[in-house]
């Protein structure tokens, strides 16, 4: 029998991290060997609020280098914050650990740098702004529609604890649309914002609007306007469990990659 894939999770106490801990613990060919958390250094996960005795073999580290050096994991799943996630991803690669990154908010420069490190070491990295299969389809359907409708506005809606705006999904959707849409500055040429930000952010002339409200989880609506018609493509994540089948596919796939893949759509059949 093959050895299980040894996984470390960064951000285990977070909303996504807790789901990922469940996923890894409940997948027979994955083994959760460690966690990275800026608190609880040198403990085991069962000593952390909300975890149980079943987590007593999961070592917690605050320093990612110590974690990778001691545990020699195969894969890091990072679900933290933009700057921390970038540092963890880089550290993982330098220790020959393959990162599956759900954390959003990386800059283009950071993505380029991580790709270069990954390729120079022949290691896979997956950076997936959205792990939900439905969200990937929503992005692909939007890309299909954008071939025929060049006027598009993206409305992404999230819980009010989210740090980055626009969301990773909003940016990725705009980038996928950009691949097929003739560049266009939308709206009236003389349009003027009388209050800053009224028209949202601007990606290649498309507008991206970010809604943040308690009660929301993760939702996005892409609206296409044409003469006498409106097309809306929408996806809703009502539960963070919606992201976990994508995380599982990434952990399974990453062992076969030797470069950086940005977006789950690139590894799905
Ligand atoms: N790709 C996807 O499908 C999804 C991505 N996300 C992204 O995942 C990230 C996490 O989201 P949530 O779980 O909602 O956030 P959260 O705020 O609930 O969790 C973040 C966790 O990171 C931990 N953390 C912060 N700094 C750290 C450090 N230096 N070392 C170790 N841990 C540290 C915090 O303790 C916290 O537990 C965000 O960037 C979010 O945008 C969220 C949902 C889905
Ligand atoms: O922070 C979140 O919650 C989410 N973040 C990701 C993003 O920025 O797109 C994915 C999903 O929308 C949930």
TrEMBL record:
Q: Which UniProt keywords apply?
A: Amino-acid biosynthesis, Cytoplasm, Diaminopimelate biosynthesis, Lysine biosynthesis, NAD, NADP, Oxidoreductase
Q: Which enzyme class? A: oxidoreductase
Where is NAD(+) bound in this sequence?
11-16, 37, 102-104, 128-131
Q: Name the residues that bind NADP(+).
A: 39
Q: Where is the Dihydrodipicolinate reductase C-terminal domain?
A: 134-268
* Annotated region (Disordered), positions in chain: 181-201
Where in or outside the cell?
A: Cytoplasm
Name one process (GO BP) from the record. diaminopimelate biosynthetic process
State its Enzyme Commission number(s): 1.17.1.8
Signal peptide region: none
Positions contributing to (S)-2,3,4,5-tetrahydrodipicolinate binding: 159, 168-169
Q: Which pathway does it operate in?
A: Amino-acid biosynthesis; L-lysine biosynthesis via DAP pathway; (S)-tetrahydrodipicolinate from L-aspartate: step 4/4
One cellular component term from this protein's GO annotations in UniProt: cytosol
Q: Where is the Dihydrodipicolinate reductase N-terminal domain?
A: 5-131
Enumerate composition-biased segments (Basic and acidic residues). 188-201
Q: Which residues form the active site?
A: 158, 162
Gene Ontology MF terms in the entry: 4-hydroxy-tetrahydrodipicolinate reductase; NAD binding; NADP binding; oxidoreductase activity, acting on CH or CH2 groups, NAD or NADP as acceptor
Q: So what does this thing catalyse?
A: (S)-2,3,4,5-tetrahydrodipicolinate + NAD(+) + H2O = (2S,4S)-4-hydroxy-2,3,4,5-tetrahydrodipicolinate + NADH + H(+); (S)-2,3,4,5-tetrahydrodipicolinate + NADP(+) + H2O = (2S,4S)-4-hydroxy-2,3,4,5-tetrahydrodipicolinate + NADPH + H(+)
Role: Catalyzes the conversion of 4-hydroxy-tetrahydrodipicolinate (HTPA) to tetrahydrodipicolinate.
Which NCBIfam families does this chain map to?
dapB
Its family remark reads:
Belongs to the DapB family.
Q: How does it assemble?
A: Homotetramer.
Instruction: Report the protein name in the record.
Output: 4-hydroxy-tetrahydrodipicolinate reductase
- In the UniProt record, the gene name given for this protein reads dapB
């Amino acid at each position: 029998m093959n050895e299980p894939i040894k996984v470390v999770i960064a951000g285990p106490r977070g909303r996504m991290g807790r789901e990922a801990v469940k996923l890894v613990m409940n997948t027979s060919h994955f083994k959760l060997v460690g966690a990275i958390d800026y608190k609880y250094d040198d403990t085991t996960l069962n000593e952390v609020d909300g975890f149980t005795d079943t987590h007593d073999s999961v070592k917690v580290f605050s320093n990612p280098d110590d974690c990778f050096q001691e545990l020699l994991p195969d894969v890091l799943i990072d679900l933290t914050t933009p700057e921390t996630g970038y540092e963890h991803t880089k550290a993982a690669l330098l220790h020959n650990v393959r990162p599956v990154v759900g954390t959003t908010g990386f800059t283009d420069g950071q993505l380029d740098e991580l790709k270069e490190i990954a390729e120079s070491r022949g290691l896979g990295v997956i950076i997936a702004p959205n792990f939900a299969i439905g969200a990937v389809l929503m992005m692909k359907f939007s890309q299909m529609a954008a071939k025929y409708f060049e006027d598009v506005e993206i409305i992404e809606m999230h819980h009010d604890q989210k740090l980055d705006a626009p969301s990773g999904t909003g940016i990725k959707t705009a980038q996928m649309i950009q691949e097929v849409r003739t560049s266009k500055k939308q709206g009236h040429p003389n349009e003027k914002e009388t209050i800053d930000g009224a028209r949202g952010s601007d990606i290649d002339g498309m507008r991206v609007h970010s809604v943040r409200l308690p009660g929301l989880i993760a939702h996005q609506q892409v609206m296409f306007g044409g003469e006498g018609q409106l097309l809306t493509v929408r996806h809703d994540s009502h539960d963070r469990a919606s992201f976990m089948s994508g995380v599982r596919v990434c952990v399974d796939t990453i062992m076969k990659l030797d470069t950086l893949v940005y977006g789950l759509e690139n590894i799905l059949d």
